[in-house]
Amino acid sequence: MSGLVAGARKLLGRGASLDTRLVGLEQAVAGARGRLDDVVVDRAALVVDRAGARLRLSAEHTVVALAGATGSGKSSTFNALAGLDLAAVGVRRPTTSYATACVWGEDPAAELLEWLEIPPRHRVVRDSTLDRGHQHTGLDGLVLLDLPDHDSTEVAHHLEVERLVGLTDLMVWVLDPQKYADLAVHQRFLAPLASHREVMLVVLNHIDEVTPDGREQMLADVRRLLADDGLGDVPLLATSARTGEGIDELRRVIGKRVADKAATRTRLAGDIADAAAALSVQNGDSQPRELTAKDRRELVDALADSAGVPIVVDAVQRATTLRARRATGWPLTAWISRLRPDPLRRLHLDRGTSGRDVIAAARSSMPAADYVQKARVETSVRSMCDEVSKGLAQPWVRSIRTASTSRFEDLEDRLDRAVTTTELGVSGTPGWCRAVRGVQWILLGAALLGAVWLGVLAGMSYLQMPQPGTPDYAGFPVPTLLLVGGVVAGVVLALLSRVLIAVGARSRARRADKALREAVSVVCEELVVEPVAAELAACRATWEGLRTARS
Hints:
Blueprint: H1 2-12, H2 18-32, H3 38-56, E1 62-68, H4 74-82, E2 100-104, H5 110-116, E3 123-126, E4 142-146, H6 155-165, E5 170-175, H7 183-190, E6 200-204, H8 212-228, E7 236-238, H9 247-260, H10 263-283, H11 293-306, H12 309-328, H13 331-334, H14 343-346, H15 371-388, H16 394-404, H17 411-420, H18 431-462, E8 472-473, E9 476-477, H19 478-550
Parallel strand pairs: 1-4, 1-5, 2-3, 5-6, 6-7
Antiparallel strand pairs: 2-4, 8-9
């Protein structure tokens, strides 16, 4: 692109914007590719290629093409302008099979002619030596082309005319008094090129064959037809290649266009404007919006629900509670809780104590997303697409919707992997739980000591044996205090621990929920958001490129 920009600046000079407009059109083509109508995009891409190539070529030459029907005198006019018999002249069938080029000036414009695909044998250079004694020196820099007849029966001739008409800087349409109203030239060439009227001339040749009284009426009729084509302000000249009438005026007008070097940039500007306008019809004028945090949050919520995140979070809270109660409960009753299954292990999310230690078939232990959950995901994706594509043209709406579901087939497996490989933060037992467990065993030991003590005393009493003295505290026997105090304190400690357990379980559940949703968010970004964001970026690039190209 640097060469293209350099060529444009060389061609246009300071303050020119054609290079910027061309870059904008190229950006729009890249963004619209595969999304808007391929035919329209391909035409715009062809304009970019042609304009870029033309800008990199000589800025000192102006390519002028003579186009006309069989018998219009196009080749005779070419010879008259060149001052040499260069083009074959025919009256019945087209004799111009290939374009012929005549270049004025010492520079043969070889690279430009190669780009135009003019064979070397069809090139002539009018240098200063040939022009001595002629008033042609004002045409230096002119590359004059004699095109094949546009009404030829040869398809190759039609294609050659259309190709070169798209490459020339100034188009001269040669009409004749008998066929100037032919629909072929008006519908196929003149009317479609109305936006290029600033780089067009129309010549009514064979004017010598029209009576003096009928000339003005005929010229008025030609102007009427041109106005119907949108070319009312295009210069119209009357000439006769046979007698030379009007040829000098035609040469003067062409020479003026060549001298001011404006035809090339005007033609390219028209091509860019036409291509941008055609793309804009497809693209629409609405500016795409950005994906918001709300869009992402709603989608992540739906995907998290579908992936079973609430189930896992609930399992984390219940598993944390169960494990903490086993650790802090009264040892003689805590073992009963071991009969209850661990919620995380039932889901195969905690074979050990780490959420990463997962069996390959972990998903089979979690309930699959039901119809309601899947419908919620589809609704969330569709709502997001509808919101971000509001006001956009239908091709963009379709491309955004297609992109949003383009990777759905991988979604379920990726969500499953995200949930089953996320660290849930349930490994290990909190330090305070281990401390409470130590205290519980101490209290249990005290209660057992008191029970054994009281049992020994009861046995000695039953056997009528002398009993040793029993210490007391505050009027209560120490063995009784040990037994009752150990049991009561153990139960009370277990109950008090449940308050802390509930707080800790909720905290771990929140952390697990955050970790799981972050994992789901990564999957959501990669499989849903990024494809949609890419389409929005392409739409934005197209919109901005077209705005630049049409400015």
